[in-house]
Amino acid sequence: MSPEFSDRKLVQSLLLLSREISLLPSLHFLLKLSSSSVIRKFKLLAFVFEEILRLLVSFLPQSALLCSKELYVVLQRTKTLIEDCSNGSKIDGIATLLDVFPFKEFDLSDDVKELVVLLKKQCCDAQALVDPFAENLRQEVLDMLDHIEKGIVPEQSKLVNVFERLGLHDSSSCGEEIERLQDEVQNLGSADRNLTVQMVALIGFLRYAKCVLYGASSPKRSTGSPRFDGEAPLPADFLCPINLELMSDPVVVSTGQTYDRSSIRVWIDSGRNTCPKTGQILAHTNLIPNHALKNLIVLWCRENKLPFVTAETNNESDGFTVNKAALEATKMTASFLVNKLRVSPSTEMASRIVHELRTIAKTDSQSRACIAESGAIPLLVGYLGSDNAVLQVNAVTTILNLSIFEANKTTIMETDGVVDGVLRVLRSGATWEAKGNAAATVLSLASVQTYRRKLGRAKRVVRGLVDLARMGPSSPRRDALAAILSLAGERDCIGRLLEGGVLEMAVEIMNELPEEVVSMVAAIVKRGGAMALAVTDGAIGKLSTVLTDGPEGAKEFAASALVSVCRIGGEEVVSQMAATPRIQKAVWELMGTGTGRSRRKAASLWRTLRRWAAEPDHTHRSRTVVHISTNMADDFMS
């Protein structure tokens, strides 16, 4: 590459970078003080580089070459800085380089010379970094946030004036600004706590003003996960099995299951010594961070533009973001929306209001508490039976989101008509999404032992969950199975589950969702359902097939259930299991490769099969079912 071409390429790169920076979108006004000024300067700088490129016919002077290389580095950093929404500026470095750049070496036009002088002056003038318009606007909003923090409701006329100057003219533009702020909060994390707190407060303020000025957002028909309305479907492994929320600090317990740290800590501190999902006794209470899963969750959130709130930004005692202004703004927003709902609005308006409540209720526990305290829950009851499918699904999903906050569970259970309304949606909801979210609400409420017993004894609850698990699509079906598994954690609920046809349903769908179904069956068997399973047509054969050909996660539960059933069902059950092809090989492999618990269960099955095969009244073929590797088995168990 010739020197001339290399030098020309460098100037072209400087020109291109300047233009790219000048075209970057304006940031929100909290950062606009430096960014807008920098962006304007690069519009001018682009003209200078364009003139130099036009005049360049040979290589750059050595001093100009060195300055150009340094400028290229600074411009790259400046672009990255603005794109990352940082609150600093590299303009001082640019000022130094412009001051030493040998512009006199080039025959610049008078206009461009004037631009150079102007650029040098602006870059050296500290006051030039502050846009007076943006500074005044920023101060007005900060004053409003200060008033909101004190519980003072902003005057609507002032809101109109500020939002006009911000260029936020409708609900859509406000929503886009909120999304940008959420992205910035996520990217900043704990790097700049003061700015993060300020932006969280601003998000609350924007939500309130959006509702007051432009009304609630229009609901959209959802096709995604129940917990993330209309967004990309959330992987089930990212949800904590206890609180149904996106895990911010996933940890692994001794059984190998993963939970959010705060939820499993509350579970353990309440005196429980079992794994919430499997029912197994915890060998110890150590919590091992699941860094790999956390990284996956963070990456997924960034790709799907969802906020990821880490433990560092939360109050450790109650999980609330420490931000008085944001709290007061959320209270004002909830109160405003609930008051609108109290006046019996039209179906269209009610749908928009409930959708807005649903959106706010999925953000954090602080918002869920504010909405419940504003009196929203009793008003939502009437919309659970709405003929409008969108309004119905928004109502039940709002209750689901509210139920995730522990204190709201009592309000939901004790408010007349809420549970009955949720159960009606579960049995005859207008959409599968509504039914699935009703099942998820049952699961959320069942995390409290008293409510779990009450719900598990209700015939309507069990029948609704069983029907949904049997006939629903994948996501609602999993919600139903998770709710049944939770109810199966109480021995008092087993009779109603059996009466409701849970085992028959399990046999029907075990091939489709083996892990979920078999873990549920194992929980029922453990708490008194072994005999019922033994006499359920096809159950032993299906469990044996899972043990031989099922996913690894389901094999342990299958072994556990089969051990219990064999002890009660006797020879007939054992013979059904022994008739399964390759059963002895599957049991042997589980003894060698499974977890400590699964190896013990497999060893018990192996002994059962050997004793059965040794009975004199069995055929030679039966007696040799487990004869393969008998000496190896003796060595293994000795």
UniProtKB/TrEMBL annotation:
Segments annotated as ARM repeats: 375-417
Organism: Protea cynaroides
Top-rank lineage group of the source organism: Eukaryota
Presence of keyword Nucleotidyltransferase: no
Catalytic reaction(s) noted: S-ubiquitinyl-[E2 ubiquitin-conjugating enzyme]-L-cysteine + [acceptor protein]-L-lysine = [E2 ubiquitin-conjugating enzyme]-L-cysteine + N(6)-ubiquitinyl-[acceptor protein]-L-lysine
Pathway: Protein modification; protein ubiquitination
Protein name: RING-type E3 ubiquitin transferase
SMART domains for this protein: Ubox
GO biological process annotation, one example: protein ubiquitination
Keywords: Transferase, Ubl conjugation pathway
